[in-house]
Amino acid sequence: MTVTHIGELARIPHIVVTETQSSFWFPVLFKFKDSVPATDVATVEKDVWELKSVPTVLKMSFGPTFTTHKAQGFTHTMVFEFANKEDLQTYLGSPTHCEFVQKFSGYVPENGLLIMDIEM
């Protein structure tokens, strides 16, 4: 939300409130199976940045947690921002995303993934 002061009119201040365009966020929390070697974890941490190359991704952040006592077992988070729902769907169907999921999904236990679609 943007608040713009446009001055005084008849000695009464006016404020115009305008809605900014929504964006769509796609947070992904995950953890690795205990059996995954540290070298494979490092490979995922490097290769994950290839996902940013999908043209519909506006922003991407990624990193491991540093507060494991609050993370409920999740060790890493990726957060993507998209302009609209269609761009998110394009990302999900992109060869880059599909290859990443296929390559690394075996590293994540059955309960090791939490994904949300958020409009903000």
Structure description:
The chain has 120 residues and is of the alpha+beta class. Residues 1-10 have low confidence and may be disordered. The chain has helices spanning 38-47, 85-93, 95-104; strands spanning 2-9, 12-18, 24-30, 59-64, 76-82, 113-115, 118-119. The protein starts with a strand and ends with a strand. A hairpin with a 2-residue loop joins strand 1 (2-9) and strand 2. Helices cover 24% and strands 33% of the residues. It is globular and about 40 Å long.
- Please indicate the percent range of residues in DSSP E strands (runs of 2 or more): 25-35%
Number of strands: 7
Low-confidence stretches: 1-10
- Main sheet makeup: 5 strands, antiparallel
Distance between the termini: 11 Å
Structural classification? alpha+beta
SSE blueprint and pairings:
Blueprint: E1 2-9, E2 12-18, E3 24-30, H1 38-47, E4 59-64, E5 76-82, H2 85-93, H3 95-104, E6 113-115, E7 118-119
Antiparallel strand pairs: 1-2, 3-5, 3-6, 3-7, 4-5
